[in-house]
Amino acid sequence: MSRQITIPVKLDEKTFKRFSRFDMFRLRKRWVRPVVFALILIAFAAVALLTGKAQAGMIASVLLVVGLGLPLVYFGSFLSQVNVQAAQRGLGKGRPVYTVCLDFDGITVTNKLKEEPPVTVKWKDAQAAFKAKGCVYLYVSAVRAFLLPDGQADAGDDALWAYIEEHMGAKAKKLYK
C-alpha cells in the first residue's frame, strides 16, 4: 500500500482527555512515584503505631494524611489542568486542529489553529504509534504526538492502522486485543 492517506483531524474534549491520561499514566508511568511515596508513608505510619509509644497515633495520622493527601492532590491537579487545557483550546464538541497526511515518505502535519509551515517527519524518525479505543496516537517525537480519531481519515480505520503498521513496524502497538 503506497498511496497517501489524509486525516483532517477534528479533536474533541473526550478524545483529548483520554489521550492525556494515556500519555501521563500509561506511557510515561507518572503514577509510580506518587504511589511509592504513599506506600512508604503508610509503612512508616504502621511502624509508628506498632511502637505503642505516646504520640504514635498522632504521628501515624500525620503520615497517613500526607502520604495519601499529596498523591491525591497530584492526580487531582493533573486532571484539573487537562480540563482547563481542553476548555482553553475550545475542544468541547470538537474543533478542527490539524491535517495529517501519511504517504510513502513520512508524516506531514499542517496546523489549522495558527499560521506555520507544515511539519514533516520521516517514518524512520517517528517514535511510536498506539492504537487505542477510538483513536491512534502517533508520536513523531518523545514529547509530540498527533491524535488520529477513528472515522476521520479518507481510508477506513483498519486500513489506516495497517498503513501505519506497514511503515512503522514494531513501533506500532495495539493497546487492546
What's this, in brief?
This protein is an alpha+beta fold and 177 residues long.
Structural class: alpha+beta
Number of domains as seen in the coordinates? 2
Radius of gyration: 22 Å
How would you classify the quaternary structure?
A: single chain
Question: What can you tell me about this protein's structure?
Answer:
This protein is α+β, with helices and mostly antiparallel strands and 177 residues long. The chain has two domains: 5-13 and 91-174, PH-domain like, CATH 2.30.29; 24-88. Helix content is 45%, strand content 24%. It has four helices and eight strands; from the N terminus they run βαααββββββαβ. The strands form two sheets. It has a four-stranded antiparallel sheet with strand order 1-2-3-4. A four-stranded mixed sheet has the order 7-6-5-8, sandwiched between helices. A hairpin with a 2-residue loop joins strand 5 (128-132) and strand 6 (135-139). 20% of the residues are buried. The mean pLDDT is 94.
Write the layout of secondary structure elements.
Layout: E1 5-11, H1 13-27, H2 32-51, H3 56-88, E2 95-102, E3 106-111, E4 119-122, E5 128-132, E6 135-139, E7 145-149, H4 157-168, E8 172-174
Parallel strand pairs: 5-8
Antiparallel strand pairs: 1-2, 2-3, 3-4, 5-6, 6-7
Short descriptors:
single chain, 177 residues, alpha+beta, PH-domain like, 2 domains, 4-stranded mixed β-sheet, 4 helices, 8 strands, 45% helix, 24% strand
